[in-house]
Amino acid sequence: MNNPTPIVPCPASPAGLSWSDVITAYDETHLFTYAQLLDAEAAGHSRDWMIEAILGLEARDPAASDQVRLHLARAHWMRETGYRLLLSHASCEHDTSTGAA
User: Fold this and answer.
1) Which of 8, 49, 77, 82 is the most exposed place for a label (fewest CB within 10 A)?
2) What angle do CA 11, 16, 18 make, to 5 degrees?
3) Residue 53 CA: distances (Å) to CA of 3, 64, 85, 88, 99
4) Chain centroid to CA 11
């Protein structure tokens, strides 16, 4: 299968990813990783491939399976819900920078 986007491995941080109903600093620094995971999933790549090519982990590491599962879940949340928070935040910053109320 062809890779949908250039892969830039982004090491996953087990301590950095935790569930939240708001966008976290970890989310902000991993938006590209989330997009790569969603693209890879849509292209039919295996989770092992995602673990190695995107997360930069060894697929044979037992913790890597949890990492890809957690990151994919967060990526889906960002696609379905979190993006609204990003847009809302960007809109507020724009209003502040332009002086609009």
Assistant:
1) 8
2) 125
3) 10, 12, 28, 32, 44
4) 12
Block means of pLDDT (10 residues each) for the chain, length 101 residues?
Answer: 48 59 83 94 97 92 90 92 74 54 50
List of residues 6+ apart from 25 with CB closer than 8 A: none
Structure tokens given for 47: 């989770």
- Tokens 């849509």, residue located: 42
Task: Provide the 10 A C-beta neighbour count for residue 22.
Answer: 8
Are 27 and 82 a contacting pair, CB within 8 Å? Answer: yes
pTM: 0.71
Closest alpha carbon to 23 in 69, 95, 92, 100: 92
